[in-house]
Specification:
Layout lengths: L10 E8 L13 E2 L3 E5 L9 E4 L7 E8 L2 E7 L7 H8 L9 E3 L11 H8 L5 E4 L7 E3 L7 E3 L4 H6 L3 E4 L4 E3 L4 E3 L16 E5 L2 E4 L9 E5 L3 E6 L6 H12 L4 E7 L10 H10 L6 E4 L4 H10 L12 E3 L1
Parallel strand pairs: 6-7, 7-8, 8-11, 17-18, 18-19
Antiparallel strand pairs: 1-5, 1-20, 2-20, 3-4, 5-6, 9-10, 9-14, 12-13, 13-16, 14-15, 16-17
Length: 323
């Protein structure tokens, strides 16, 4: 008996609102709609009454998740990108109304996934919007490789989020929302032998910097789409993308994987040796669609595209995936 039997949703759409790149020349596909352009823009130096601009790309991630279940449509924001106004700018240009959001889920506490909450709060005012977050997301962190100045990884402020009007829902455990049609994984067990986090991450504990290779607040969202199977959406995938997909299958008891999307965090020299191990392990799930973005890294992107030529889709800001 699965721990969280996940009812089938009638439909799911995931729209990339923030990611590291925008590309107006990417082709659309059967389940993939591209929306890179903003039309009807005036530029006084262009010889036309109207021209076009593109969406904003930045080092961060955010996605609009639209679930249809029981004849009702529900929308949540998964992460919020890096900058204060990038998320809102892209939602405006895509003509998406933030007032339709019913909840926000944070994948973890890194600033490139939380910065846009400020712009969202400014737009909505004190809306008491539920924000699902792991309690350790507020941990003060840094990345401290040897012989390099530490890079601060500032977290969101709990008191500031409450002051801005968010209704904080804090839990380490899995949870179901939207008529039990969407699963938030909570903490993801680290069970693979090679997905052991990042050795240079540190957390401030009792005024001291301590090693924190495992970001325990890292979580994902999962939807079981009728006739297709599980769709797994990650932020950075600090838990390890294989650990995350395995957790989704174990929690729900659903073995068919329709899609794996989001950041896989395989960028940089430390992660290069893990790329083939990750690919081999992902083959066991046979994902029908695989969309690595954000922090996956270009080497991993190329390797995944070569290993899954039928399933791979290149991500970009403004892309919508339909299941």
């Amino acid at each position: 008996m699965p721990a969280f039997p996940l009812p089938e949703a009638d439909a799911l759409e995931i729209t990339t609102l923030v990611d590291n790149q925008v590309d107006a020349l990417l082709p659309a596909e059967e389940q993939v709609r591209r929306n890179p352009w903003v039309r009807g823009v005036h530029n006084p130096l262009i010889d036309s009454p109207e021209t076009m601009e593109s969406l904003r790309a930045e080092h961060g991630f955010a996605a609009l998740v639209t679930v249809t279940a029981g004849g009702e449509r529900h929308r949540l924001l998964f992460d919020a990108g890096l900058s204060r106004h990038g998320l809102m700018e892209n939602m405006d240009r895509l003509q998406l109304n933030p007032k339709e959001l019913e909840a926000v889920v944070l994948s973890h506490g890194h600033f490139d996934h939380t910065g846009g909450l400020a712009g969202l709060a400014e737009r909505l005012g004190r809306a008491n919007l539920p924000l699902l977050v792991h309690p350790r997301a507020y941990t003060k962190r840094r990345s401290a490789p040897p012989n390099v100045s530490p890079l601060p990884l500032p977290p969101p402020s709990r008191s500031a989020l409450e002051g801005a009007g968010f209704e904080l829902v804090e839990s380490e455990d899995p949870s179901l929302i939207f008529q039990d049609a969407l699963l938030v994984t909570g903490e993801v067990p680290r069970v693979t032998g090679f997905e052991q986090g990042f050795p240079f991450f540190q957390a401030e504990e009792n005024g001291q910097w301590e090693p924190e290779p495992h970001l325990l607040d890292d979580q994902a969202v999962v939807v079981n789409v009728r006739g297709r199977g599980l769709v797994v959406l990650t932020g950075c995938g600090h838990s390890g993308i294989v650990n995350i997909v395995r957790r989704a299958v174990e929690l729900t008891g659903v073995e068919s994987v329709a899609g794996v999307l989001g950041g896989f965090h395989l960028s940089g020299a430390y992660f290069d040796p893990l790329i083939p191990l990750t690919i081999d392990a992902l083959r066991a799930f046979s994902p029908a669609m695989i969309v690595p973005g954000h922090c996956t890294g270009w080497r991993a992107q190329q390797a995944i595209a070569a290993a899954f030529p039928e399933a791979y889709v290149h991500n970009a800001v403004g892309t919508a995936f339909a299941f």
